User: What shape does this take?
Amino acid sequence: MDFISIPAGSFTMGSPETEEDRGDDEKQVPVTITQAFELGKTVVTQQQWIEVMETTPWKAEDEAEDEAEDEAEDEAEDEAEDSRTPEGDNYPAVYISWDDATEFCAKLTALEHKSGKLSVNQTYRLPTEAEWEYACRAGTTTAFSCGDDEVELYDYAWYDDNSGNKLHEVATKKPNPWGLFDMHGNVYEWCEDWYEESLSGGNDPKGPSAGSRRVIRGGSWGNGASDCRSARRYYDIPTYRGGIFGFRIVRVLL
Assistant: This one.
């Protein structure tokens, strides 16, 4: 698993009132990330998930479809086949809930503490919402890290205009200015924070201490360009799994 070093720094979180398709929950706040951290160069892949968790959650949909296909006509079978989640080492791990993602971080931390790859004070975890947007923007202030023009997004993200309505392998589009792939599109990414309508500002904000829904960022292969904006916010219950839900992880530097 490759990581990108993200420097400490300050930025404006959220979107300006002039940004097209802006959400009501994107009111801008100043944020300072006081400590450098490392963020996964890509989302966690199916191969990485299997090596740590020894499960294949993205196969659950396929197994249900296989049962349905036994009684379906040939044409229906072809449609079901086309709709399946692609499998392979470099495809994102999907059908991952927030609970699953945090379990992965805990298990990977324990494995690497035991092997000596991590110091006893280091850990893996999900990024906070502020860390995620800071890394996604990579010093930019535009709607996307590649600018404001949706035409430019085509080269940086898998979304509804170019995805063919399916998941794609990681790192097959251009990276953002800090070398992170697929921060826009392909799969939504779970963040550590509970969701609330107002963004939290200040130093290293982490959102509310409790809630019912966790933050998800980045957009997916099934979303329009506006849902892949750097400031676009989304949320779901922490137990939810779906074919557009994945995650990337932080390695804490201590």
Q: What stands out?
A: The chain has one domain: 3-251. Residues 98-115 form the longest helix (18 residues).
